[in-house]
Amino acid sequence: MRRQAGDMVARILAREWIGLGFGLLVAVLGIACYGLSRPLAVTLLMLAVLMCVGSIIHLLRLAAVRRRYPPTGRLVDVGGQKMHVLAEGEATDHFPVVWLTGGHASALTMDHVHRAMRTVTRSIQIDRFGTGWSDTGPFPRTTVGEVEEVLAALDAAGETGPFVFAGYSFGGLLVANIARRYPQRVARLVLLDPTPLETLVFGPRLGAIKDMRRDALFTALARLFGFNIDFQQRRFERNAAHQNLTKHFEQTLGRALETLKEVEISAGARLAEWSIYRELLGPHIASCGWETVVYDGDLGDMSVWLVAPGTSDEVADTPEVASAGAETARMFRFFQRSRERYMATSTNSRRVLAPAGASHQFVYEHPDFVIATMREAVRRDL
User: Fold this and answer.
1) Closest alpha carbon to 292 in 141, 136, 120
2) pLDDT tens digits along 99-134
3) What is d(CA 110, CA 112) in angstroms, rounded to the nearest whole number?
4) DSSP-derived pairing of the beta strands 303-308 and 74-78
5) I need a surface site. Which of 1, 139, 248, 311 has the fewest CB within 10 A?
6) How many whole angstroms separate alpha carbon 167 and alpha carbon 146?
7) Closest by CA position to 166, among listed 380, 371, 360, 337
8) What phi, psi does 183 have (nearest 5°)?
9) ∠ CA(181), CA(142), CA(284), 5° rounding?
């Protein structure tokens, strides 16, 4: 019941003009209160003006961004809403590749590898609902729902496979689900340090997901009333651990990052993020695990490449982790080894080690390595 109520509220708030509606509602309340308490009425009317002005600023900003940054690809119909698909290059003696990004992120966050691979084969970027140039999409947002939407977008765009599906982090979980449900669409599965849901069910309690959901909700509310604030970005900027990541991210993406920051200013984008991350909270994963987790042997003899940093022992034995104590080392081993279980999903799996010293962000730290790996992965003669 609580989830249904939350989804209903998200649907309402995802309408970018709803801030104006709330402002007008407060104005009506102010007028109604005028005969009872003039100070209260004046306060409500002033608040209504601020809400309406902020909402108009938000709507004008959205309109300006859409004029300044038109979609780089096609907007295709998926269930009555528009999803953005950018497909470039030609697939000749190579399989086409489909990229799915980490977290709830626009396809632009993988733009650097897409631009390199479009000279080799057909390279396809998809903005999942609530990211990039795509519409917000239906609620609730779920992993299973996004699998169906991605394949529907490929069909609507006229893209034919089989494809090499490459998924980074949370995108790895998505492409693994595609492979389990629609193996005939998959030529090869490339998992770039994928997220295994078991880590969130059985691992240490992590407050980061709750923080990201809260930040997404507060950001959406602020934007509805004209405040272009990203609370998650502010939290990252205050965290020294994210500074090195930000440096690699900015250097690697370049102008694509500037576009990304402008394009994703809608409230709906952040509400979609709020919704999809709910599924990653431990109690909810347990209820959808059978539909979402890809288990040992689920992929038969499909070609599966697990591309990630070194072994758990290498990570756990680094001075930084060792100095943090035995429990921290145990946590690192747990996360790394649970990821290695993806190797057991197929009898035809291959382990590809990222360069020494690489972190989970190796897609940005070592882009040349990722590109070289993908050049091999899309070959038909392997």
Assistant:
1) 141
2) 999 988 899 999 999 999 999 999 999 999 999 999
3) 6
4) unpaired
5) 1
6) 13
7) 371
8) -60, -25
9) 105
